[in-house]
Amino acid sequence: MQETPRANRLHISFFGRTNSGKSTLLNQLAGQQVSVVSDVSGTTTDPVYKSMELLPIGPVVLIDTAGLDDSTELGELRKEKTIEVMRKTDLAILVISSRCTEFSEEKTYLSMLEENHVKTVCVINRFDGDSIPVLPFSLPTLELNASCPADMAKFKQFIIQNADSDFEIPFMTAHLVQPGGLVMLIMPQDIQAPKGRLILPQVQITRELLDRHCRVISVTPDNIVPMLEILKQSPDLVITDSQIFRLVNETIPSNIPLTSFSILLSENKGDIQTFLEGAKAIRTLRPGDKVLIMEACTHHALDGDIARQKLPKLMEQFVGGPVSYEVHSGPGFPQNIGDYKLILHCGGCMINRKNMLSKLSEAQQYGVPITNFGIAIAYMNGMMERISY
Ligand SMILES: Nc1nc2c(ncn2[C@@H]2O[C@H](COP(=O)(O)OP(=O)(O)O)[C@@H](O)[C@H]2O)c(=O)[nH]1
Ligand SMILES: [Mg+2]
Q1: pLDDT at position 72
Q2: H or E stretch including 344?
Q3: What pLDDT digit, counting tens, does each position of 121-145 carry?
Q4: Considering only the top CATH level, what class is 182-264?
Q5: Mean pLDDT of 106-132
């Protein structure tokens, strides 16, 4: 856990036809051979990821993609992968070779990028001795020679200028507790907790609170009461795993502000208003309605799994009969999302903000309400008035 999680890095992706010099450019920028460079079209197949520090932006991840003009059987699959990458991209770099004489392919890229609301800049890769083509679209553009190390300083500067200056990951707790405040974290280390480490939201929130000079105490649920008894003051804020919201609600005095890791994360990853609105749709569910339970990453499900057992059980009690739920893991939604009455999404600690926002807008486009696990649990336990967000 020493590395900045990929989800908190600015995602910079390279798009463009095969042999335009994308991989060469990425390798030069990263200062190492990350992506295979070759003049055989379609050498880069799966997207290639390289994390690095790009100061003053900070931690970034560079993503190399395959060209869309690859006509092999795998072409269609690559297109899907390309779209998947676009949906998490904060800054797209469209690489155009100076040898290019017509720009239909580039226009296809641009319309796909626009559709996915991706900020885009152009690089014209000047192959030796070539003149520079005139582009039929206007975007911030840099000319360079991808195989020339001396051009990399210009390229870095170009990226820095065009990266969103507001990319800073905002604090999740600033509106709930002041520096110096006392915060109690309730973190069950049950069988689902990974062996020997804390999960990402717990690590991130702890780190943020320490950065903000709060005083942090962590307990498992059995130690809530003993800890409260020895404290000379009440905590200014309690942050719990949302799976035990109900128990914590019964244990923590009602005058102490209470929230959960996933609720704090949803402010940071996406748009909490959309999730709060989405939660209201739970009330309209009827037995048999289709509900999509969406996990961003795959993990081995254990007994008591939140997505497969806890949430379905809670929903069944709330709705008054079993709903027809489907669990889907992975970066994107399944094909048929219009069929669902509701989407319950995990906290999304492993995906970046851009990725979550893309999903919210896709759900919105299909008119399907979406909320996240923590808010759904709070809602079904009648705790919406009780929680702070
Ligand atoms: N002469 C020259 N060759 C380049 C330049 N950039 C890339 N190449 C070559 O063009 C071919 C394709 O480059 P690559 O980076 O793999 O392109 P990609 O398919 O867009 O990733 C390779 O043989 C590179 O060595 C350049 O600026 N000048
Ligand atoms: Mg390549």
Answers
A1: 63
A2: strand 342-345
A3: 999 998 877 788 889 999 999 999 9
A4: alpha beta
A5: 91
For the chain, the structural domain boundaries read: 6-167, 182-264, 270-380
Pocket test for ligand 1, best of 24, 48, 147, 151 (most atoms within 8 A of CB): 24
Question: Half-sphere exposure of 302 toward its Cβ, with a 13 Å CA cutoff?
Answer: 5
Give the integer Cα–Cα distance in Å for 195 and 201: 16
Around ligand 1, the residues with Cβ closer than 6 Å are 16, 18-24, 37-39, 43-44, 67, 125, 127-128, 145-147
Measured between alpha carbons, how far is 100 from 176 in angstroms, rounded to an integer? 54
- For the chain, percent of residues with pLDDT exceeding 90: 61
Question: Are 182-264 and 270-380 equal in CATH topology?
Answer: yes
Looking from the CA of residue 126, the nearest atom of ligand 1 is 27
* Best-predicted range by mean pLDDT (187-191, 205-209, 300-304): 205-209
How far apart, in whole angstroms, are the C-alpha atoms of residue 82 and residue 64?
Answer: 10
Q: Can you name the CATH fold of 270-380?
A: Rossmann fold (3.40.50)
H helix or E strand, kind and range, residue 186: strand 182-186
Q: Which residue has the higher pLDDT, 184 or 273?
A: 184
Task: State the pTM of this model.
Answer: 0.81
Atom of ligand 1 nearest to the CA of 43: 19
Are 14 and 22 within 8 A, CB to CB?
yes
pLDDT level of residue 168 (50, 70, 90 thresholds): low
Could you tell me the fold of the domain covering 6-167? Rossmann fold (3.40.50)
d(CA 267, CA 275): 9
Distance CA 143, CA 154 (A): 9
Task: Give the pLDDT band of residue 37 (cuts 50, 70, 90).
Answer: confident
Q: Which residue, judged by its Cα, is nearest atom 1 of ligand 1? A: 127
- β-partners of residue 216 are 183
Number of residues assigned to the chain: 389
Residue 80, Cβ density class (10 Å: 0-12 exposed, 13-18 middle, ≥19 buried):
exposed
Q: Exposed, middle or buried by CB within 10 Å (0-12, 13-18, 19+), for 215?
A: middle
Pick from 101, 89, 157: which is nearest to 127 by CA? 101
